[in-house]
Amino acid sequence: MRGRIAGLAACVGVLVSTAAGEAHAAPPPLGDVAAVRAALQSAAMPISTRTVESITTTIGRIAADTPRYNYFPRSVHLVEGTAQPFLYDTTAADCLPAGFGEQNDSVGIARAVAGPAVDENLPVPVIPPGKVNVFFSGMNTAMSSPLQADLVEVAWLNLTTMQSGRAPLYQERPADYIVTLSNTLETGRGTIVFVVFGSILDNTSRALPPCDYAPVVGVVQA
């Protein structure tokens, strides 16, 4: 398990560096947290002590085989197509008001819908072939708003064509109690690797910091 997570961390660094136009070889295997931190730094992702704490919490959940959340946002209304889950649920450590569990963590859930698909809650409902809608939900975060300026991004690499990119996630669907951010990306057809990272502001957590999530990786067939 430790080797698998360390290898995954190295892949995150390579993916986002490639998306930013930089080619780097994968670093040698390190300890879990050290490997993820090195990947974040090499990818120029936002990193803080709280991000590292979130990474440690996420690794602990994976190692303990913690059941994944059975949650699908009401703001996603698929009438054609399927939502492909990312490899694991991520975590933002200790960012919620008291009462959400011992650690007051937020669990983050990422999925992707590859075209052809139709989501009636998107501004442009039809997702054509070659495009993928990525959406991310922060559990127990509330009061989503287009003006909230959440700092969540997605980077991607098409392993079939070697095209890559990076874009923000934002509130493009109707507001729901759980913050769900998304974006439709022109990735082309093929096997696409995504990494979602960043922070969500919870308007109900007045004096608490943003929820800084550990990066979450997904492999999507488009």
From TrEMBL:
It comes from the Bacteria. Residues 1-25 form the signal peptide. Keywords: Signal. This is Secreted protein.
